[in-house]
């Protein structure tokens, strides 16, 4: 465990060096946050039926998306791992005195954490200082804030476990393009990144509830705004843990199967 913690720490420190990329990312995320909120404000102002999600909750939902984008985006990738698999340098990974799954998991987790640390606080600060209706509100209670922090971190672990399946699939496809496109399009849609899950038609919501993606973004963001009650949030944490265990189990089994049939050419 100490080896994986050290890898995570080193990758986290290394990721903090990319400040210029973080500044560019903050500007982009603030811009898209304003655009999305303006679109939703326009729709809400013309709506003649009760909204399934109050506008202040929706505004908080959008700003949390932008602030913690590194936690929840599926197109976030480590090209080094892809090159290890497709270039044959996976042989060096097999020589390490540690598990490949845990090693890669720690690397991916640290990269997402370092990217989010550099961006989330400035974005949230701007969001809290904006005028209405763009202003982001506080959670309804300290308990809701604590549950949000727990669910967000569990969602981060779930998204890394899903990302591991993308990398493992490259052992068979030998090209990351297809896996990245499929997972990112489907995953981010059902996570509520395009349309918040409460605004989807009923049948699409049922599909989203049956998949693990909404537990990475939609669930913690709605816990923050109080749309999901505390009792339901506690049950949701249990579901997150079950999904995390299932995804890690499938990932470790798939990686073991892939490594048993891997062929490294060259010398």
Task: Describe the fold and architecture.
Helices cover 75% and strands 0% of the residues. The protein has 267 residues and is mainly α. It has one domain (2-261). It is globular and about 60 Å long.
Key descriptive features of the protein:
267 residues, 12 helices, membrane, ABC transporter permease, ABC-2_transporter-like, transmembrane, transmembrane helix
- SSE run: HHHHHHHHHHHH
Hey, roughly how much beta strand do the residues contain? under 5%
Measure the end-to-end span.
33 Å
Structural class: mainly alpha
Overall outline:
globular
Largest sheet at a glance?
none
Q: What is the strand tally?
A: 0
How many structural domains can be distinguished in the coordinates?
1
**Alpha plus pi helix count:** 12
Low-confidence stretches: none
Mean pLDDT: 83
- Helix fraction? over 70%
Question: What Rg do the Cα atoms give?
Answer: 20 Å
Protein name: ABC transporter permease
Transmembrane segments: 21-43, 55-76, 113-131, 143-168, 180-199, 233-255
Keywords: Membrane, Transmembrane, Transmembrane helix
InterPro entries: ABC-2_transporter-like
